[in-house]
TrEMBL record:
This is Cell division ATP-binding protein FtsE. It holds the Pfam family ABC_tran. Part of the ABC transporter FtsEX involved in cellular division. Keywords: ATP-binding, Cell cycle, Cell division, Cell membrane, Membrane, Nucleotide-binding. It is found in: Cell membrane. Belongs to the ABC transporter superfamily.
């Protein structure tokens, strides 16, 4: 469902972030992307949701070629992909409920369906009782659970998370990981760029290691493989 072939990315300032990447990820997989700072992990995941465009090579996401996709079709691609960021990116003036409902309003979901879908997803992440709170009234872990809820409310086939536990303490991070595991258990593909050795070595999944824009390791139930 995610296929990258000979993918290169050079930014406009001349920095080459990816140097010939080949990846095949199937529906339902859980994949960690690891590697040193500046290795190209964020660039790799941003290519998957077409935040950046490849300089060369082919990227097929769910049957769509993201290099040749027409600009007006990009929103349809994005609907199939939920994205979770390190810094949550919630709208600060909207309530938890409204932050999640917004993701459905922009895709013109029928208003009568929105309430049930938002409450269902809040139940999944364990925040039904905080629907009326604004982000500032929540802990970091709760805010991240809201952002996961927002990413999955639309039932995307793929969830991409770039350092989702980077701003959270270890205990909170385990809770977030449980949520991602539940999302994955429902059949959603999860791709997670992370610097967390503890998480990768404890919750064993496929590990793709990137160094200097190249994949240097791709192992099922792999190890983090770097000293912290
Ligand atoms: N928008 C950009 N414009 C120019 N260069 C960029 C841009 N984004 C990233 N880079 C460069 O591309 C390289 C890879 O960056 P990237 O953010 O993908 O690495 P990373 O592995 O995610 O790093 P980290 O673990 O520190 O987040 C780095 O040299 C970085 O400076």
């Amino acid at each position: 469902m995610i296929n990258m072939k000979d993918v290169y990315k050079t930014y406009s300032n001349g920095v080459t972030a990816l140097n010939g990447i080949n990846i095949d990820i199937d529906q339902g997989e859980f994949v960690y992307i690891v590697g040193p700072s500046g290795a190209g992990k964020s660039t790799l995941v941003k290519l998957m949701y077409r935040e950046v465009k490849p300089s060369d090579g082919t990227i097929i996401i769910n049957g769509t070629d993201v290099k040749t996709i027409k600009e007006r079709k990009v929103p349809f691609l994005r609907r199939q992909i939920g994205v979770v960021f390190q810094d949550f990116k919630l709208l600060p003036k909207l309530s938890v409920y409204e932050n999640i409902a917004f993701a459905l309003e922009v895709i013109e979901e029928q208003p009568r369906n929105i309430r049930k879908r938002v409450m269902d997803v809040l139940e999944l992440v364990g925040l039904k009782n905080k629907a009326r709170f604004i982000p500032d009234e929540l802990s970091g872990g709760e805010q991240q659970r809201v952002s996961i809820a927002r990413a999955i409310v639309n039932h995307p086939k793929i969830v991409i998370a770039d350092e989702p536990t980077g701003n959270l303490d270890p205990e909170t991070s385990w809770g977030i990981m449980r949520t991602f595991e539940e999302v994955n258990a429902r059949g959603t593909t999860v791709i997670m760029a992370t610097h967390s050795k503890e998480i990768v070595n404890t919750i064993k999944k496929r590990v793709i290691a990137v160094e200097d824009g190249l994949i240097v390791r791709d192992e099922q139930r792999g190890e983090y493989g770097y000293e912290v």
